[in-house]
């Protein structure tokens, strides 16, 4: 009986309905799903224990591979190849689009995650602080932030204005997203009816950008405007990462239902309190107006004539 080779893949843990929040981890996971690679996936809480301190990490017996450019060729050597149906031109397109996304989308992704202060303070840093154990929850966010700033400096060495860099990075990313949308058109996948490497690459970028609850969603909004790309991400998530997708959607629906019930239960009391507050405010304002003379109560002459004469005479006698 032949020995069965066990492949284990360590990846950054996922969230928001995704199996991982990391681009390279998502790319390997998607390719493995498309190609039918039998994997045991370990959601890691820290890459610190890996040989080179990075994820994804493919464990093959005593050996390890920890870069996409090494892992995917290894899968192909083992005859797990999602590109076997592609023509030579389509294979060339795979490499071209991989280079395009690294040049145009990756800088924007780094800016969104590690430089945009609102996203960093309200989403990214808290996420890593929760996902990682101490002291790694302090070490890795700082490390990734420094790497992102170093990338921006290498791309724009003469520009010190971060707003100018932001506009340039987002502009190039928006053009890239529009190009992807045009190229995909109404097809299910980029090279036909079955997903290939190019889909693993594109999905790995678009899925986190689309699904993360970004406080500053400038580029995310542009992606949401490309409706075919939104459907594309959902299609891959539902077909190939069904468990993560359904679990997240169920949790989100339950959370929305709880919020709705809480709102409904609070409504009668809230409405009553609003009415009482309005009445009290009206009475107070009326009393203040009368006491200060802003509003006077006038008495008409015909109302005085109705007063009994003897009451008036008696009143005069008293004086």
TrEMBL record:
Belongs to the metaxin family. This is Metaxin-1. GO terms for cellular component: SAM complex. Residues 25-144 form the Mitochondrial outer membrane transport complex Sam37/metaxin N-terminal domain. One of its GO terms (biological process) is mitochondrion organization. Keywords: Membrane, Mitochondrion, Mitochondrion outer membrane, Protein transport, Transport. Residues 173-236 form the Metaxin glutathione S-transferase domain. CDD domains: GST_C_Metaxin1_3 (cd03212), GST_N_Metaxin1_like (cd03078). It is found in: Mitochondrion outer membrane.
